[in-house]
Amino acid sequence: MKNLALPFFAASAIQNVGFAAPAEPQESLHERLENGLGRTPALGYNNWNNGGCTHATADAALKVADLMISLGLKDAGYQYLNIDDCWASKSRDSSGNLVADPAKWPQGIKPVTDKIHGMGLKFGLYGDAGTMTCAGYPGSQGHEAQDAKKLASWGVDYWKHDACYLPCATGGTPQTCWDGRSSTKAYYATMRDALAGAGRPILFSMCQWGRDSVWTWGKDYGNSWRMSGDIANSWSSLANIAANAADIAQYAAPGGFNDLDMLQVGNGGLNDNEERAHVGLWFIAKSPILIGTDLSKLKQSTLSLLKNKALIAINQDSLGKAATYFRPAGKPAPVKGTLYPYWAGPLKDGVVVGLVAVDGAATLSINFADVPGLGSGSWKWTEVFTDATGTGTSVSAALGAHDMRVYKITKA
Ligand code: GLA
């Protein structure tokens, strides 16, 4: 969906135009989401960034399942296998049920989820809060309870709820609405409650591209919330998303996380340094990690990044706090919306520090005394990409352009 790749702050700016906001929805079932799911960010796969509509089929899903196992991704912790837009028939059945496209799912969804569950994986599907999905398949508006029950009967474990074709204050129900007067909250509350009543635990992944400053209320509605327009296969896109995620790190916590969007590693738009930074930033920002590339063509270097045990442990840390910018003494202050080299965040047993060569090749050095959560004295560090270790009061990395190092720091 090309026209969703709007700069994130374009959406925020539109929201601040000064119109009176619509009345907030009456909460029906919950005051906050405590569905027991998503206590750490979801780890898995989504087919969208690898060819969009073309792989929303049973065959493709089962191939991905095999590869998740044979490549060791399941053993590394990736459990969700998610199919995005275009899996459904264009029309509901005569009883109003969603129907899987019989050409793409000849036996329907259930036998596929059964197989995937039998392989020790979980299965996710995609839908929409409006009248249609972004690619024009049936949306759930007005059918939420019925759809949630259907998903539960199919054995679905994860539901991504998009925001196309919702009513827009500028008129009608356009494919995408960025008008700040048109709140998405009520639609997400309805689906949250429908899923809660469906009789099966289903992780609720909200996808409304950061509208309505969703990070400020998302934890009461879903297990994660997209905080930006769609990621593109480029450094500038991921740098922009990461910079905006740094601003909202405080909203991540067990049960609800900022979703920086599906990964683009493996898709050819990033060099090795940039792939390292993409993965490093997403993992320390505690984003859900959804691999978005053709697993049958994965380079060994990309696979190693995705299976990096130390980095996965940081993303899955039980504290669930996201890293954000910190400013070392003597360095220029961060600029809102611009990627900054210095990142840190708390872990249950230490601190994670990220160093990113945002502008070009550079040697980045920090004193641990400047890092929030650390202080003067000697600290032990391990770098997750190189396995380098050390003890001292500072650390320094000579980096190529756009490369990144991630340090786990503990008491010496
Ligand atoms: C929107 C979402 C994407 C993807 C497509 C599918 O653009 O933000 O992640 O799901 O719709 O049409």
From TrEMBL:
One GO molecular-function annotation for this sequence?
A: alpha-galactosidase activity
Q: What is this protein called?
A: Alpha-galactosidase
Q: Which PANTHER family match?
A: ALPHA-GALACTOSIDASE MEL1, ALPHA-GALACTOSIDASE/ALPHA-N-ACETYLGALACTOSAMINIDASE
Q: Which domain of life is it from?
A: Eukaryota
Annotated catalysed reactions: Hydrolysis of terminal, non-reducing alpha-D-galactose residues in alpha-D-galactosides, including galactose oligosaccharides, galactomannans and galactolipids
Which EC class, in a word? hydrolase
Write out the GO biological process terms. Answer: carbohydrate metabolic process
Q: Which InterPro entries match?
A: Aldolase_TIM, GH, Glyco_hydro_27, Glyco_hydro_27/36_CS, Glyco_hydro_b, Melibiase_C
Role this protein plays: Hydrolyzes a variety of simple alpha-D-galactoside as well as more complex molecules such as oligosaccharides and polysaccharides.
* Cited SUPFAM superfamilies: (Trans)glycosidases, Glycosyl hydrolase domain
Task: Fetch the Pfam families from UniProt.
Answer: Melibiase_2, Melibiase_C
